[in-house]
Structure formats: C-alpha cells, structure tokens
Amino acid sequence: LLNRLGDSYIFIMAENKVDMTQVEALHVALQQSFSPDASVRDPAEASIKQLKFVAGATQMLLHITEEKQVQYEVRQAAAIQLKNICRECWVERMSYLGIPLPDYSHSTNPDGTPVKPALLSEDDKVAVRAKLIECLLGEPDKSIRDLMAETVHCIAIHDFPEQWPDLLPVLLQAIGLNADPSQALRVHNALLAMRKVCKRYEYKSREQRGPLNQIVVQSFPLLLPLAQRLSGPGEHSLEAAMMLKQILKIFWSSTQFYLPSGNNADGTASSVPSPALANPSALEPWFEVLKAVLTKSLPEASTGLEPTGQPTTKEERNAWPWWKVKKWAAQIMTRLFSRYGIPNYAEDEVKEFAKYFSQNIAPSFLGPVCETLNLRPSGQFCTDRVVHLCLNFVDLAVELAPTYKLLKPHMDFLLYKVCFPAMCLTEEDIEEFENDPHEFVHKQNSPLADFYDPRMSAITLVTSAVKYRGQDTMQPLLGFLTEILGRYNSTEEAGKNHIEKDCALLMFGSLSEILISKKKYATELEGLMVSSVFPDFNSPVGFLRCRACWMVQRFSEIPWSDDGTHLRNLIQLVLQRLSDPALPVQIEASKALRFLIEVEGADVTLLPVLPQILNEYFRIMNEIGNDEVVAALQVIIDTFGEHIEPHAIALVTQLSSAFKNYVDAGEDDDDAAMAAAQCLECINTVLKGTCEHPELYKGMEPHLIPLVLQIMGNEGEYLEYVEFALDTLTFLTYFPLQLSPQIWEAFPLLYWAFDLWAFDYMILMAPPLNNFISKDPRHFLTASADTPEGGKISYIDMIFSIVTKTLHEDRSSESEQRKALTLYMSVLHNCTGQVDNYIPMINDVVLGKLGQQVNAENPATRHVVFQVIGSAIYYNPELEIAELGKRGVTEQVYQQWIKEVDSMDGWLSQKMTVLGLLSTLRLPASVLPQGLVAMIPNIISAAVKLAAKMKADVEKGLKDDDAAIEPEAGDDDEQWGGFDENEDVTNPNDEAYMSALNKLTAGGDVSQFLLGDGWDDDFDDLEDDYHSPIDNVDELHFVNDVLKEAYQREPEVYQQVQGALPAETVAACQQLFAAVDAQRSQAGPATPPAS
Fold first, then answer.
1. Which residue positions in the chain have pLDDT lower than 70?
2. 227 in Cβ contact with 219 (< 8 Å)
3. Among residues 765, 762, 764, which one has the least CA distance to residue 747?
4. Which of 289, 297, 306, 621 yields a CA-CA distance of 20 to 30 A from 716?
5. Residues 6 or more apart in contact with residue 519 via CB below 8 angstroms
C-alpha cells in the first residue's frame, strides 16, 4: 500500500497524525468488499459496518477518498461510507417528539438492549469540516464529488452557519478566482457545494431562511457577473455550461418560494420586503441571463460550430451540460411566472412586482420561449424537458392578457406545429407498444408524466387555449381535427396516416369535458364516435384500437339518439377488446367498461355476461399490476352489487391471490404495489356489497384472515396496506353474528402492532376492536396471549394499555384520544357487572384528561370524557359515584357536565349524558352524597332538556328526508367563449390554491402546506361507527321509567324535587311521558330499563 501511494501520501498521514496501520487495514477492507469470494467479502463488509464506532474513521475515509492514486472503486466506496457515517452519526437522531431513535441497524447487545447509536466525536467533526471542502474543490470525478457534496449537505443541516462559519467565505473565495481558467474545476465545485447549502433552506418558511438570505446577499454580487459572462456569446466550453448550471440551481433554490430579503440583527429573516419587491427592476439582469441562455444556439456537432461536440443520441443530449442549462433557465422562468407573475393570484406584498412582471418581464420571455419551441418544427433538436417547460410557460401566458395579446397571432403555430406534433406517438412509442407492452402501459399511466412529458404539457396548453380563449381557438381547432379525420376516412388503406389520426382523437378526447358541456357540440359527438371511433375497434393497427377504448372513457356520457343500438354495439366492441392480443388495448378496454356500466341501459347487455367479464379482468390482472384496472373492477362490483353475490367468494379468492402476487413484486414495481392496494380496496367493496348476507363471509374468511394476519403480523413490513386490512377486519367482525376462532387471532396482532409500529392507526383500529368486544364479551374477558418475555397478557388488559398509551403519548392527536376512549365505553356497555375492578383505572385516566381539557376552547374531548363517565354510571351508579367521591370531585364533575349540555350536538354525547345523569337517580337519595342530592333538580332539567332535543332532532330529520330536493339549475354556457384578449383569466380553484400557498408567508413551511394545516386534529368525529347494546335503549323510555320509578320509590323526596323544577322542565316531562305512553300503547308491553 505504501509503495503504491508514494511519499506524498506518507506525508499527509504523518501531518494529520493518522495511524497508517489502520489506514492500510481500511484500504484492504474496502478492496476486499468487492471480492467475488464471499469468504473474503463478508468479513470485509462486516468490518466496514463497524467503522462508525471507530474514532478517526471519518478522517481515514476522507484521506482515501482524496488520494487520486488509490483505485477508483475504493475511493468511491470510501466516499459512500463517509457520507453515510456523517448522515447517521453527526448528531443524535431524534423523533419528531424529541425521543432518541435507535441505531439504524436496530441491532441489540447480548443482553437484549438496543445498541446505542454511534456519534462522531467533536475532534472528528472539526477534522472533517476542515478537510472536506478542500477535498471537494479539487475533485475532478463527478461521482465522487457528488458524494462529497452530499456529505457537505448532511453536515450543513446541523452545523451551518453556527459551527461552520468559515464555510461560506471559503466557497466565495474559490468562486472569486473564476477569471483564472486554471481554477475552473475549483470554481465549479465551490458552486456545487454552495447549491447544496442553499438547498438546505429551499423549503423553509420565511422566518427560517435567514442563512439563505445571507448567502444571497454575499454571493449574488459575485454570481451575477459570472453568470453574465458564462451566458455570453463568447463562452462555449462545457466547463462554462457546468458552472452556469450550478449558478442557476442556486438561483432556483433562493427564489422559488420567496424572493430573498435581508436579515434581522439576530440572523432571522427580516419582514422588510426584498430588494426585488422594493425595486422590481433589480432582478432584470438575472432575467437577461435566463433569456441569453434560452436563445443560445446549440448546433449539431456535424456543423463544427460552437459550442462543439453536441452528442447525437437522445440520452446523451439530455445529459449534455448546455441542454441542462437551458432546462434550468426554462424551469426558473416558468416558476417565476407562476409564483410571482400573475397579479390575480399574487399575495398583497407581491402585487406590484406581479404587475411589473406581467407587463414587462413575461412578454419579453415569450420571444425566447417561442424561438425554443420552433426548434423541432424547423428540424432541429430540443430535449423533451425543455419543450415541456416552455409549453408550461405558454400555458400561463394564455391566462394573462398582456402575454396573450402577443401570443394570439401565433396560436395556429403553437397548436398545430408545436402541440399537435408533441402529442403524436413517436417511433419509440410504437416500438414499445409492440415489443414491450408492459413498459408502454407503465409510461402511459405514470403519475409523473405531468412533470416531464411534453405530450402532457401540450394537452394542457390545448385545453387551456380552448377553455379560456375559445372564441379565438375553438372553431379553427375543431376544423383542423375534423379535416384530419375526414382525410383518414377517404384515403386508401396503404396511404392512411395512423399516427395523425391517433393524435386527432387524443386532442378530441382531451377536450371532451368542454365539448360535452356545450349542446351544439354534444349532438355531433355521436357522429364522431360512430364514424371515426367505432371502426377502429377492429383496426389492424393496435394503437388505434387502444385509442378507441380510451375515447370511450372520455365520451361515455354523450346522449345516444337511436333506439340503443349504438350503445349495445359499443359495449360489445369494448367487451371484445378485453381479449385483444395487445396488452395496452386490454388495459384501456377494462378501464373503458367502468364508464359504460354507468350508462342507462348498459346493464341489459352486461349482466348476462358478467361471469365472463370478471374472468377477463382477473386474466388481465394476472398479466400486469395496474391499479386502474382493479379500480374498474371495483366499480363493476359496486354497480352490480346485488348480482355479485353468486361470484363473491370467487372474487375474493382471485383478489387475494392477485394481492399476494403483486406484493411479491411490489418492492421493485411501484405499479404492482399500487395495484396490490387497489385489490384490498376491491375486496372491501365485495364485502360491502354482500354485507346483507354475512353468511357469505364464512366462505371468504379462509382467504381474507391469512391476508389480514400477514399485514398486521410482520412488524410493519406491509405498512402501506394496513388501512385496507383494518377496513377488511372491520367488515369481518361487524356483520357476522358470530366470530370464528381464526378471526380472533387478529386481536393480539392489533395490540402488538399498535404498541410497536402502528400507533398512528388508532382511529382505524378502534372499530374492529369494538366489534370484537361486542360480538363475544365472554371470550374477550377470558382470552389472553403470550408476551415476548414469556408471560401472559389478557385481552382486556391489552385494551386498557392501548387507551392509556394513547392518552399519555404527546404524539397522539385529540381525535385519536377521543377514539381510544370509545374502547372504555365498549367494555362498559358490553361487559355489564364483570369489570368492576377496572372502574378505578378508567376514572384515573378520564378524570386526568378532563382536568387537562376543562378550559379547552374545543369541547369535543370533554364531551367524550363525559360519555365515558356516563357509561360508568350507567354500568354501576353506586360504584362510579363512590369512585368520584374517593377523589373528592363528585360535585365538580356533575356541575361541569350539566354546563356542557347546551353545546352537545353528537347523538352519542347526548345519549350517554341522558343515560348517565338519570342513572344517578336509580340510587336512593339516602345513599347519594348530600351535594349530589341538592343537584337532582338540575340533573333532571339537563337530562329532560337533552332528551327533548334528541326527540325534536329525530322528527326534524324525518321531515328533512321527506322534503323535495330542488334540482340545480345548469349553467347556460352556450355563448361562453372564454375570456376576451384584454382580460386576465380568473379561476376560483387556482385562486384558492394560491391563497393557501401564500399563507406560508405568515410563518408556515411548505411541509405544513402539503400535509394540510391541522392535519392530525379536530376532524369531525364520526359517531356512526360506534355500536353497542345501548343502541337498543330508547332514551325517552329510559327517562320515563327512571323518573317514574324514582317517584314511586321516594315520593316525598321527589315531591320536593318536582317543586324545585322549572315550569318548562315539568311541562317537558309531561310531554315525554305522554309520548312514551302513546308509543307503548301501540307497541305492546314496556321493557324494563337497563340492569
């Protein structure tokens, strides 16, 4: 090793006091990790995994990475290990609750305790910070410098700027040497590192962007002149392009969400508007750079013109630095336009800048953008990504009056010479359709296509042009498309242009929503389908058969003027394509059928062949994992629910099998993973459709129970499917009259999952847990499961552990805590007289929660606490009141409870308040606390008032159900041609989106916006999914029986109580008594109140 590396390496080692023996051993281990011999490779990999525990390992890795004479693969491996160790071990990893996380490997010590995560020493950190940037600046290899730049990013997250104050000055010093050609590598790598630091703050809220603002203030005066020089007409080198690309990426990170402002004295971002807002022309030099980049000519290599050396293959061109620079210029322009350039959507402080941008900057960009879009029509090359971004820019320009006026004379060029060719199938597409249909289907259904595919941005532009500027574009475009279809129909087979027709139909279909909404076009669509689509179902051209099926999805709603023959023919044509020899056609046919089954009269044709249809769907699902195919099957099952029952078990069998196949492939196949989830959703649709015949569930359980156990019992390996599995379990535990021993195997799995990895699924776990308790209370109370430690834990203790953990964990939301408390109610309602020893524990938890919530503005959690207290009193009034007395809170609890009555809207809160308060009166007054006796009039008043309200709500609901629903008036848009050229487009949906995005300036960050503010709390709690024996207790009858019983038991006491009642309460009582008597006279003998 020493001989190979030479004296210079020995000098470096000695200077940094690195143990050469350890360096040599590390070098050998890294080499051996590439050995094909497992006996050599495995020990080497094991020792490398332990590097993070070795003091000085990062310094040794850094020196091996830096040394150019070391074997390249070893240097790269060292760089990877350095990045991983810095990412894992720079600071202690904490959960979002501030709890230390275990080691990445989840390893354990011999005694079973988790291995403590490794942490770098301060000496190692200082050494790495001191050396890393210098190593990066001099690194010529792209892979290794990218790894080192990522390491800079990992460290900057924690240390910049406080612990790494010299980082920015060192980078700026290197960038300042840009006039010296020999320093080009160091300048580029310094820009790369600066971009990584800027990226750290890209998505931060305005208040957290202080360091980024400081970088902008110090670096932009240096970067702008460099960018101007590099984008000038005399710069053609690849080094210039690579440096310019990094500068534009820095600009992107600094501006895409906020225009940079200054900082306060403490380093936080200032609320003072940015210089660009105070003086909109301040950014003009940067805009000139973007325009210069976009207009730069990139000639073919064969011309010999500068910049020379453009590759000839598409893949290499896409990666060529000069095309990358154009991509970033187009991306920045489009982003600035959408974020800051449209006055209607701009926040208040950006309004003036938006006006300036819309009137001056956006129009000046149109020339370079349209020039770029003209490259392909003029026979020159342009990357898909650049075309995509330029089309997005034009799409925005269509909405803005100043830019649309400039575009209007060129709309024919944009629609027919740019968009139409961009939407056409390419030779590569057709080759893929015929020889790699799985990949073709994957690309056609990729959700990422909107972000890179020019075909998608062309469709969006065409749709916007017709929707917003229809008076200028609609008729010419329809004439253009109709001419293509007519020419195709009149041409001999050998001369037909199949690609052109496919694109014409794609354009028609993309405009379907607009065309169907206008009567004058809607009546012509039937002719379009019959003359130009129906024949293609039997075309020898596979992609035209595929397009015909796609057109059905777009135009299934059109009115058919004949006797139903066209619809029947269409259904038959689609059914035939389910067994088409081309897989993409099968996929589109299966998707098309979901739209046809909803058309009136379709069931007559489809029902007789339903079994065959189902078989075709399963055959396609076995061929490829596609979530839309499974979703189409789900619609069929949902629509023909009553006819599905004979096929239900076969359906579940097939879907379960498909799920297992997709899961096996899902790790490497995103489409299969999505299809697997859709299979579970489809299974739940079958269960929903057959729930009125739960005896069918018995035949499905052998397939579904193993599936649920697999998902819930593998330590979170199938986490993405947990939600669906819990829904399945809810069906299987709610509808059958009895639960099988096999389904009970899921109960402890729910507990272990909740305890170890599925804490966040509390809301979905509660319904099946409630079902378990209510369906077989005896088994629930007697069953237990083994613990990992070798002990036993009873099922009821599992429930109480779940509730306690949920209410005591800071990470649980109020909604989750409310849902957990329903488990207490389920135990109390279903286990009458059998859980007395758990009453103290229930009180400890709920009274503690009540104390936390007593002054909370939102009363929802308090109401659920009172549901539990009401349930406990209903369960055993003497025991519960005694527990309240032990804690000295009886009167306070009742006073607060009565105070809450007016704000209770949920039926469960109302019902448990009526049952709970009045259950107090089932005890003789002589055994009640004196303070509670004095409150009896208030208790009766509150309960009667609430019972009367519930009665009125029920009666009102019945009247509302009988009320006629006024039909909505349709919008008469026959004269609507979009916006005039002097008007900006206004779109309420876009305005709402931008309004939400602009609220980020009030202090939120982008992650909050994407998740939704308050995403984990205060959703309306659904009480409809809670069921228990109290459903059978009529609250009006209960009020009647308890009050009459109390009066008969203690007439003197309740005579005094009656005298203390308000007149309206006495009147309400009399009305309730009369209503109950009337009901009972009609229904027969009364049932006694609760035991």
1. 1-18, 94-115, 262-274, 277-278, 625, 666-669, 958-977, 987-1025, 1084-1091
2. no
3. 765
4. 621
5. 974
- Asked if residues 721 and 679 have their Cβ atoms less than 8 Å apart, the reply is no
What's the rounded Cα separation, in Å, for the pair 343 and 357?
A: 9
421 preceded by a cis bond (ω within 30 of 0): no
Query: For tokens 């020990």, what's the residue?
Result: 43
Query: What pLDDT was estimated at residue 1008?
Result: 41
Alpha carbons within 13 angstroms on the beta-carbon side of residue 470 total 15
Instruction: List C-alpha distances in Å: 106 to 109, 112, 680, 997.
Output: 10, 11, 31, 39
Distance CA 297, CA 310 (A): 11
The span from the CA of 381 to the CA of 384, in Å, is 9
Paired residues of 114 in beta bridges: 108
Report how far residue 927's alpha carbon sits from residue 960's, in angstroms, rounded to the nearest whole number.
46
CA distance 244 to 329: 10
Model pLDDT for residues 196-240, shown as the tens digit of each residue: 999 989 888 888 888 998 899 999 999 999 999 999 999 999 999
CA distance 1056 to 465: 80
One-letter amino acid at 658 equals A
DSSP one-letter code for 786: E
At residue 567, the 3 state secondary structure works out as: helix
Structure token digits, residue 726:
């819990």
- CA 399 to CA 342: how far, in whole Å? 9
- Identity (one letter) of the amino acid at 614? L
H runs (alpha helix) in 50-141? 57-66, 72-89, 122-137
Residues in Cβ contact with 72 at an 8 Å cutoff, skipping those fewer than 6 apart: 141
Which H or E run contains 892?
helix 890-900
Cβ of 111: how many Cβ atoms within 10 Å? 5
CA–CA dist 542, 540 (Å, integer): 6
Q: Are 57 and 51 in contact, with CB atoms under 8 Å apart?
A: yes
Structure-block tokens of residue 1050:
């203690």
Tokens of 727: 């829904």
Helical axes 610-623 vs 583-596, angle rounded to 10°? 140
In terms of Cα–Cα distance, which of 465, 561, 552 is closest to 514?
465
Give the torsion sign (CA, 1017, 1022, 1028, 1034): positive
260 phi and psi, to 5 degrees? Answer: -60, 140
Question: Residue 57: which of 154, 128, 115 has the closest Cα?
Answer: 128
Q: DSSP readout, 386-399?
A: HHHHHHHHHHHHHH
DSSP state of 308: P
Secondary structure of 612-638 in the HEC alphabet?
HHHHHHHHHHHHCCCHHHHHHHHHHHH
| Token couple for 967 | 């039909």
Q: Are 943 and 913 in contact (CB under 8 A)?
A: yes
pTM of the complete model: 0.75
Q: What is the pLDDT of residue 115?
A: 67
Specify whether the CB–CB gap between 391 and 461 falls below 8 A.
yes
List C-alpha distances in Å: 1001 to 258, 682, 996: 8, 42, 10
Whole-number Å distance between alpha carbons of 1060 and 243: 88
Q: Are residues 629 and 617 in contact, defined by beta-carbon separation less than 8 angstroms? A: yes
The pLDDT value recorded for residue 111 is 60
* C-alpha distances in Å from residue 698, one per residue of 648, 657, 687, 750, 771: 11, 18, 11, 21, 17
CA distance 521 to 525: 7
Helix/strand/coil percent split, the chain, to 5: 75, 0, 25
In angstroms, the CA 29 to CA 1017 distance is 51
The CA distance from 337 to 284, in Å, is 14
- Tell me the pairing of strands 792-794 and 784-786: antiparallel
Pair of tokens at residue 755: 């305890």
CA angle (222 as vertex; 220, 227 as ends), nearest 5: 85
